[in-house]
């Protein structure tokens, strides 16, 4: 029983860490668009300026998108076929774990034997509160000539506040989203 009680919090932590590392993605697109005709791109500054994130994170996202598009054979251009825009949403999540169980508490006033006194026993834990930020990144591909949205990719997952991990997390978001482009070409 003691071994189970010791491993249960570790197991819960591993489940939480695994769920935090994944990015859930989805994409929507115009079925009438001819995706094979799009060869060049540029960033849509007006749309990107509206994204409510830091300029540092915007640059990280744009660099990651550019790297993915170049790897797919696109060329950056002053007269593009596609305009790329983005926007973001985030929400704070607060989890309160209030399981009210514990063991091995030391204290006074416990009953042990013929009188009251110190002892070990079961006790009440304080609630454990954790906060995390879940973010959603939208990447929009707009037909430059028609000024119409032709593809939108979305990725949702937990964000890191750790500066060293932030760039890798942004690359992961963008990579997972861009796996959905062009439509019908996923492996």
From TrEMBL:
Keyword set, alphabetical order: Signal
Record carries keyword Nucleotide-binding: no
Keyword Signal: yes
Highest taxon above the source species: Bacteria
Residues of the DUF4136 domain: 25-183
Residues of the signal peptide: 1-26
Pfam families: DUF4136
InterPro entries given in the database record: DUF4136 (IPR025411)
Coiled coil segments of this chain: none
Protein name: DUF4136 domain-containing protein
């Amino acid at each position: 029983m003691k071994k189970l009680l010791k491993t249960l919090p570790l197991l819960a932590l591993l489940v939480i860490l695994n769920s935090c590392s994944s990015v859930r993605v989805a994409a929507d697109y115009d079925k009438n668009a001819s995706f094979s005709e799009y060869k060049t791109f540029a960033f849509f500054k007006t749309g990107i300026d509206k994204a409510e994130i830091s300029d540092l994170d915007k640059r990280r996202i744009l660099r990651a998108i550019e790297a993915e598009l170049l790897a797919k054979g696109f060329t950056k251009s002053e007269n593009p076929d596609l305009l790329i825009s983005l926007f973001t949403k985030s929400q704070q999540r607060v989890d309160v774990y209030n399981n009210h169980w514990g063991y091995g508490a030391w204290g006074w006033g416990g009953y042990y034997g013929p009188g009251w006194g110190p002892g070990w026993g079961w006790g009440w834990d304080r609630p454990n509160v954790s906060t995390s930020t879940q973010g959603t990144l939208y990447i929009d591909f707009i037909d430059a000539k028609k000024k119409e949205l032709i593809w939108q990719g979305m990725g949702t997952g937990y964000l890191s506040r750790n500066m060293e991990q932030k760039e890798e997390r942004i690359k992961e978001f963008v990579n997972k989203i861009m796996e959905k482009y062009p439509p019908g070409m996923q492996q």
